[in-house]
Design goal:
This is Beta-ribofuranosylaminobenzene 5'-phosphate synthase. The chain has nine helices and twelve strands. β2 and β3 form a beta hairpin. It is globular and about 60 Å long.
Length: 337
């Protein structure tokens, strides 16, 4: 039975969690030149997922159905962290059914951590909220959209991390129109920054100027959010593209001088933007890129034209996805019924 993340009922035998990918559409003020650092806009998508099963067992067992040794090691580490924090040390069985591509800009680390945390919490009847799990597992230091996306889905705006270190507060959530699509462009040969490399890159960058941060805030408040809420695709797409242009120029020095980590993804997305009405950009440090189109037909037509023009590199993985207007799902198997 599928339940929203966080739902609880009676004694549990095992649990499956399906955690969605998210696109990080950009920070509002990464340096805090307007007075508060970060703040971010993101979208949960109905495409790749992190799927895992966790239950109680006679002995510990950690396995994966996909080549995911690094992800499996992280999942085991999350279980150990949760054991230390909660005192629940009974053996567990954990199987990774699928994972999100690592360091691709899809939120793989946060979604894996929260999926493990939610499954562990439900299995032991702990009732831990997503924000609590994120704090225990070290997620959400800069962006809150992965945490909010795990719970809610949709287009999400957060207000930046709080002074006490708690995850960013969710300021707005909007369900995108059902017809809208995103062309998701993945480059398996490129890798986005993460961890210590990401921190070092941020430290080397000059602060985003106050005027640029103000422009991004205006684009989000007056074009992206109203466009999404009112079903007006043109202002939504234009606002996303403009905030991505500003941020792409700012972060380019950390990406070999490019707005896109993947040159191949950048060529395709720039071509789509030049030949159709689309909102384009890169999710976080990439290499995942995206192009928003107002319908499935328009998305497929744009891809067909791009292929005919020879701008789709063979190495790219391309999906047409819709927004996911709900969060992670928990499917549980109950003892005695």
């Amino acid at each position: 039975m599928a339940l929203p993340a966080g739902a609880r009922r009676g004694p549990l035998a095992g649990v499956r969690v399906r955690a969605p990918a998210r696109l990080h559409l950009g920070f509002l003020d990464p340096a805090g030149t307007l007075g508060r650092r970060f703040g971010s806009l993101g979208l949960v998508i109905d495409g790749p997922e992190c799927v895992l099963d966790l239950g109680r067992g006679a002995t510990d067992s950690f396995e994966a159905d996909v080549p995911a040794s690094a992800a499996l090691a992280r999942a085991r580490g999350h279980v150990e962290t949760l054991r230390r924090a909660t005192g629940c040390t009974a053996p567990v069985t954990l199987r990774l059914r699928s994972t999100l591509p690592a360091h691709a800009g899809l939120g793989s680390g946060t979604q894996l951590a929260l999926a493990v945390g939610r499954a562990f919490s439900v299995a032991f009847g702990l009732g831990l909220g997503t924000a609590q799990l994120a704090a225990l597992l070290g997620r959400g230091a800069r962006s809150g959209v992965g945490i909010a996306g795990f719970d809610h889905g949709g287009l999400l705006l957060d207000g930046g991390p709080r002074a006490d270190g708690a995850p960013a507060a969710l300021l707005a959530r909007i369900a995108l129109p059902a017809a809208w699509r995103a062309i998701l462009v993945l480059d398996p040969h490129a890798r986005g920054l993460s961890g210590a490399d990401e921190k070092a890159a941020l430290a080397r960058l000059a602060p985003l100027p106050r005027e640029a941060a103000a422009e991004i805030c205006h684009e989000v408040l007056m074009r992206v959010l109203p466009g999404a809420a009112g079903g007006e695709f043109a202002p939504f797409a234009a606002g996303v593209s403009r905030m991505q242009q500003v941020l792409g120029a700012h972060f380019a020095p950390a990406q070999d001088g490019r707005a896109f980590t993947s040159a191949a993804a950048g060529r395709l997305l720039d071509w789509i933007a030049a030949h159709t009405e689309a909102g384009i950009g890169q999710s976080s440090w990439g290499p995942a890129g995206f192009a928003f189109l107002p319908s499935e037909e328009r998305a497929q037509a744009a891809l067909a034209a791009a292929r005919a023009a020879g701008v789709v590199a063979p190495a790219l993985d391309i999906l047409v996805v819709r927004a996911r207007n709900h969060g992670a799902l928990v499917a549980d198997e109950r003892a005695g019924g």
